[in-house]
Amino acid sequence: MTNKEVYKKTLVFSLKRLGFNCICVVIVLALAIGGFILVDNLTDKGLIGLAVGVLFGIVVVAVLAHFFSYTYSAGQIAMMTRAVTEGSLPDNVFAEGKRMVKERFLTVVAYYAATKAIKAIFNEIGKLLTGAGKALGGDTGEGIASAINIGIQVVIGFLSDCCLGWVFYRKDKGAGRATLEGAGIFFKHGKTLIRNLGRIFGMGLASLAVIGGAFFGIFYLIFTSFPEMFRSLSNELVETFQKEGETVTVWISDPGHLAIIIAGIAALILWLFIHGTFVRPFILVGVLRNFMEAGIAHIPTESELAEVAQKSKKFAKLQEDAGSI
């Protein structure tokens, strides 16, 4: 199967995840608006009610996501892995993906234990690279470290997904052992896999510029059509955050600037939804294929895993706990 064929067959998981995310957004918005109206009517402090509503909504959504949304992501990775290693997929991809997730991780706890271990290992690598930027010192060093960290977090997301794919592929091994092998594959074939960086960042930046830019323009045009609303919001923000004898930043006190900020935030949120649904899965198929090919060609040996354990404390700790995952 080609990358495009795998992408199209497994897109059902992305669409279902998008639907779930839309429900979550509605929940947060409903609680935020409800909190604003309730508190504003009672105390004329609507922004406080808005903040409380948003926080409560985030907690509710986090609980729902913990128990339900992981199936969509893990199921998609499981089916992508099967497609790139076996060259075919069943007719009912969604049902088979859910079955594989339940079979591999009998409980939600088992799934999050494995994914937590995977991310811990790759985050440790990321901290080492970020530390190299900070070592330059001063504002330049901090700036470089921040830029490195943003890039690393994107890469870690893809590496974690690939490692999870390896856990599904090595179904004859425990999840802990398979996780060790997945991390070992990166350490052994890191230079080869790093070639995916161009694909990851190139398509990501193009997606942000085209999709995010388009939505920013749309939102900004809409928001500037309601100047009174943003003038009122700006005044309330100034009253809320201004301290005696101090001035408030122009981005809050100027309605025009406030419209830019909110348009940018709204565009970024929508871009994250659309990019995560339609663009990132396509990138992942290619990265996952390269990862699986490298791993299948040479599954890490015990001596190679021992070498990795000497370089990574997180990896060594997982070796000790592998039987419990």
Which helices and strands appear, and what pairs or packs with what?
Elements: H1 3-43, H2 46-86, H3 93-104, H4 108-134, H5 138-169, H6 175-193, H7 197-223, H8 227-241, H9 250-253, H10 255-297, H11 302-311, H12 313-321
Helix pairs in contact: 1-2, 1-10, 2-3, 2-5, 2-10, 4-5, 4-6, 4-12, 5-6, 5-10, 6-10, 6-12, 7-10, 8-10, 11-12
What features would you describe in this structure?
The structure is a single chain. Helix content is 86%, strand content 0%. By secondary structure, the protein is mainly alpha-helical. Helix 4 (108-134) packs antiparallel against helix 12, helix 8 packs across helix 10 and helix 11 (302-311) crosses helix 12. The chain has helices spanning 3-43, 46-86, 93-104, 108-134, 138-169, 175-193, 197-223, 227-241, 250-253, 255-297, 302-311, 313-321. The model has no long low-confidence stretch (mean pLDDT 82). The chain is built from twelve helices and no strands.
Quick tags:
325 residues, mainly alpha
Largest sheet: none
Distance between the termini: 32 Å
Uncertain stretches:
none
Q: What is the typical, i.e. mean, pLDDT?
A: 82
**Share of helix among residues?**
over 70%
Find the structural class using helix and strand composition.
mainly alpha
Strand content: under 5%
Q: For the CA atoms, what is the radius of gyration?
A: 23 Å
- Overall, the morphology is elongated
The helix/strand series, from N terminus to C terminus, equals HHHHHHHHHHHH
Number of strands: 0
Number of helices: 12
In short:
With 325 residues, this protein is mostly helical. It has helices at 3-43, 46-86, 93-104, 108-134, 138-169, 175-193, 197-223, 227-241, 250-253, 255-297, 302-311, 313-321.
